[in-house]
Amino acid sequence: GIDPANFLGGRMRLSLDRALEAVRSRVADPLGLEPDVAAARIVDIVNSQMADLIRRVTIERGLDPAGFSVFAYGGAAGMHAGAYARKLGCGHVVVPRAAAVFSAFGIGMSDVKRVAIVSDPSRAPFDLARWRGTGVLSDHHVRRRDGVALRVPVEAGDLNLDDGGERVIDRFTARYESKYGAGTAYRKAGVEAMTFVVEGVAGMPLPQPEPLEDEGSEPVAALSGRRPVYLPESGGLETVDVYSAEALRPGNELNGPAVVEAEDTTVLVPPGQRLWVDGFLNLRMEVRA
């Protein structure tokens, strides 16, 4: 789906011949496949691995990924998100306008934070006077004796009680069981307090952009050409429309198969999926099974 002549806005040219030869010599020939088929299967494996990684942070935590939208940031995400979102049962993909530099954008817009950490292990019941001596007023690490650690908030009022930290331990127990299941926080195994953490945050002023007006669904002004793309769904090359992301306007819609090219990313819209542009020029994809 990537145009070798338009990578990085045309400032870097890719060699299609060398790419095909690499796939042919290392994968296709050993497996007795055509290079296009081998390349498509490589991509499918990558998409499956991405889907598995998301399952680890959703299903393995008791969350259904089908109830979430996929937020596809990074220059390569747009090529894969439609496929792995469908594998996960997710119905919606968001490709931010600044997808390729989204991490840098996030760092530039994030709050300024300073963190102070003091390690002072102790076992319950806790000496709250000793805790007060550390100056902790926000967070504390408390863990069970089997080594499973969780971060548990410690409020200023907790430090003024003479309960050996029972209120904090109750809070730890609730968090532990919400994560690992009812009855898993076996108090008799013992609880340790490990690390005091104080965070100071200075909020930075954030812009409040206004959405642009809808300019209609027709994307013809952004159509930049057509080119063949290998589509596993059809089992071969298919000539698809190619659109310029910079020329797409709020409200524009298009149906897959199609390719949307930006200077710093490429978005593949698989067959049967719909892409539209929101008022902040983010690309939104409706994923259909």
Question: Could you explain how this protein is built, in words?
Answer:
The chain has 289 residues and is an alpha+beta fold. It is 28% helix and 27% strand. It has helices spanning 16-31, 35-57, 77-88, 102-109, 128-134, 166-180, and strands at residues 70-71, 92-95, 112-123, 139-144, 149-153, 191-202, 223-231, 236-244, 253-255, 258-261, 266-269, 274-277, 283-286. It has a 5-stranded mixed sheet with strand order 1-2-13-12-9, covered by helices on one side. Strands 3-6-4-5 form a 4-stranded antiparallel sheet, covered by helices on one side. Strands 7-8-10-11 form a 4-stranded mixed sheet. α1 (16-31) crosses α2 (35-57) and α2 packs across α3 (77-88). The relative contact order is 0.14.
How do you describe this structure in short?
By secondary structure, the chain is α+β, with helices and mostly antiparallel strands.
